[in-house]
Amino acid sequence: MARDSEATRARILDAAEAEFAAYGIAGSRVDRIADAALANKALIYKYFGTKDELFDAVFAHRVLAFVDEVEFDATDLPGYAGRSFDLYERFPTTLRLTTWYQLERPDGKLPAIVASNDAKLAKIEEAQRAGKLTTAYSPLELLTEVRALAMSWHLHTPELALVRRPSRARCREVVVESVRRLVEHD
Amino acid sequence: MARDSEATRARILDAAEAEFAAYGIAGSRVDRIADAALANKALIYKYFGTKDELFDAVFAHRVLAFVDEVEFDATDLPGYAGRSFDLYERFPTTLRLTTWYQLERPDGKLPAIVASNDAKLAKIEEAQRAGKLTTAYSPLELLTEVRALAMSWHLHTPELALVRRPSRARCREVVVESVRRLVEHD
DNA sequence: AAAAGACAACTAACTAGTTACTTGCTTTAG
DNA sequence: CTAAAGCAAGTAACTAGTTAGTTGTCTTTT
């Protein structure tokens, strides 16, 4: 095997992503990551520092890449919700990583995410001023509810998952339609 | 009963609830629970078995108690959402426990929760048949979206929490109003 | 072109500390 | 006295992080 540090880093990142998504930070084992990545444990520490820092690297690499992957159009929030839904379907680990991040890093404030949020809130406010969006809710209120609806199907309790879920297309339709009702002028 | 084992059990349960809510199953430390409960570690194992079983006991004791704490009225889903919101405000640990449960126990299916869900779905179906509830969504779809909206404010990312949140009363109003729009006949 | 040197990639084995869980004994109430 | 409650002191296994050394590759010198 030729030596390729870049490839090794990538393998470690991939393995770490799967491990952290499955077990969270506290539950993940560095040895398991090393095994899965076919890399030596010491390399993980050399390339990424501590376990926590490895999580940060994974989170930044995967989640931040998707923050702006979904196009945001304040005048079409149903469409935004639908595209968010699609992303959660395509990359199921992303939401799990985000949830672990929320639970295990309650004080972690990534500048890129903060900036992305601010931009979205500003766009909503602008759309409201232009009369293209309901003013029944503040920008933060809108973003909060739209996001909640977009990930509603992916935050099911294990028990609700027992009930037969509608088709993916129908779930998406429900999300989009719910947001449409939320933002429609009265 | 010599000495008060019931009180000791209760102290352990309380301490375990706080610990699990804060750190999850993998991140929790039995020693910390014992210290916080002013109880000996061996008693934890004597009364509750393993750490996993202790989590189950906490989850059953706290969360199951609240499953039917909130009165469910299929003809007044906005009211149900509001009352759910109130519960999340009153007992912030409950939602965290539930989230850890979802992440760390993806296969855990508690009969009491399943039964409670089934009952709610049946009530929704009945209300729909009686023409008292929109039929634009299936019972599962309605329950999913209503729940997502009810906990929308409590699933904020750390980054969104930086933005000044509206007053509790206003958040509640937003939840109730969102559900009202969701279920209104068109 | 070949040998020597430099350096980065990589590794096995280890350390120091932690953690879930147990055992054997003491204390207390009835 | 007895039975249950309670505890100090363990133990075996695990785990994050380190160390000292090896291997492969590229560059420089002759």
UniProtKB/TrEMBL annotation, chains A, B:
A biological process term (GO) from this entry: regulation of DNA-templated transcription
DNA-binding region per Swiss-Prot/TrEMBL record: 29-48
Pfam family, one: TetR_C_21
Keywords: DNA-binding
Sequence ranges assigned to domain HTH tetR-type in this UniProt record: 6-66
One GO MF term: DNA binding
Domain of life from the UniProt record: Bacteria
Protein name: TetR family transcriptional regulator
Organism, as annotated: Nocardioides luteus
